[in-house]
């Protein structure tokens, strides 16, 4: 699918894979020779992100400058001539919301990081942000008021991101689209019934809106409990 899609940049999240263990078939993906990987320190099989590019970035950084979270390998940022591309895997608040407070600290530190980038040049943030922002973004909002990914605190964190000058590209283009989900639990045939959540986003600096052509949810693509999304920009 990646070869058919031929992306300029491919962002991967929750890779659960050390740099040394990236599969050979991924290393050899044609058209994506520039590859940058981050994994959790001393925690094999946890978290991890990757960013693969057709053209060599001007610069690549790892993390957000926050020691509490950077050990988990959650963010890779590539600078290109016209924008930054950020691949991010935001922490899950956890069963019983046991990690909600660390998640809130991450949200605050991550927003500060994105603002610092945006002060230099526009930003395209791609990733599993582990939040369904509005009721339209999950199948059963009433039953999930206290579920990780739909708490008031997490939703407010995303609202603060938008208020800081960023745009949820899919919802900007398709404000009324229902049933547009990117994650389905493996339990109970949820994907076949489209009982899902929209947790994966392409968020961009507001001044990039003129370059936004489309944002697609590729729900037919199998291989994970998440599906890919595609952001198309003319930059």
TrEMBL record:
The active site is at 89, 128 (proton donor/acceptor), 226 (proton acceptor). InterPro entries: AP_endonuc_1, AP_endonuclease_F1_BS, AP_endonuclease_F1_CS, Endo/exonu/phosph_ase_sf, Endo/exonuclease/phosphatase. Belongs to the DNA repair enzymes AP/ExoA family. It catalyses: Exonucleolytic cleavage in the 3'- to 5'-direction to yield nucleoside 5'-phosphates. This is DNA repair nuclease/redox regulator APEX1. Its cofactor is Mn(2+); Mg(2+). It is an enzyme of class 3 (hydrolase). It comes from Bombycilla garrulus. Residues 1-226 form the Endonuclease/exonuclease/phosphatase domain. CDD domains: Ape1-like_AP-endo (cd09087). The record marks 200 as: Important for catalytic activity. The lineage of its organism: Eukaryota, Metazoa, Chordata, Craniata, Vertebrata. PANTHER family: AP ENDONUCLEASE, DNA-(APURINIC OR APYRIMIDINIC SITE) ENDONUCLEASE. Gene3D superfamilies: Endonuclease/exonuclease/phosphatase. Probably binds two magnesium or manganese ions per subunit. Pfam families: Exo_endo_phos. One of its GO terms (biological process) is base-excision repair.
């Amino acid at each position: 699918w990646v070869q058919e899609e031929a992306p300029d940049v491919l962002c991967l999240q929750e890779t659960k894979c050390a740099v040394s263990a990236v599969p050979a078939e991924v290393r050899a993906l044609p058209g994506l020779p520039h590859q940058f990987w981050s994994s959790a320190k001393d925690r094999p099989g946890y978290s991890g992100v990757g960013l693969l590019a057709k053209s060599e970035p001007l610069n690549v950084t790892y993390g957000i400058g926050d020691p509490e979270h950077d050990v988990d390998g959650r963010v890779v940022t590539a600078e290109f001539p016209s924008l930054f591309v950020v691949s991010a895997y935001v922490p899950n608040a956890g069963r019983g919301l046991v990690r909600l407070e660390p998640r809130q600290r991450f949200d605050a530190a991550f927003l500060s990081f994105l603002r610092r980038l945006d002060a230099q040049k526009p930003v395209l943030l791609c990733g599993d942000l582990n939040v369904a922002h509005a009721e339209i973004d999950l199948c059963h909002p009433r039953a999930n008021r206290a579920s990780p990914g739909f708490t008031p605190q997490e939703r407010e964190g995303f609202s603060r991101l938008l208020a800081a000058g960023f745009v949820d590209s899919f919802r900007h283009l398709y404000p009324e689209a229902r049933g547009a989900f990117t994650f389905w639990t493996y339990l109970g045939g949820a994907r076949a019934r489209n009982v899902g959540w929209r947790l994966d986003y392409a968020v961009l600096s507001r001044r990039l809106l003129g370059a936004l052509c489309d944002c697609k949810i590729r729900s037919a693509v199998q291989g994970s409990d998440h599906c890919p999304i595609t952001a198309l920009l003319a930059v």
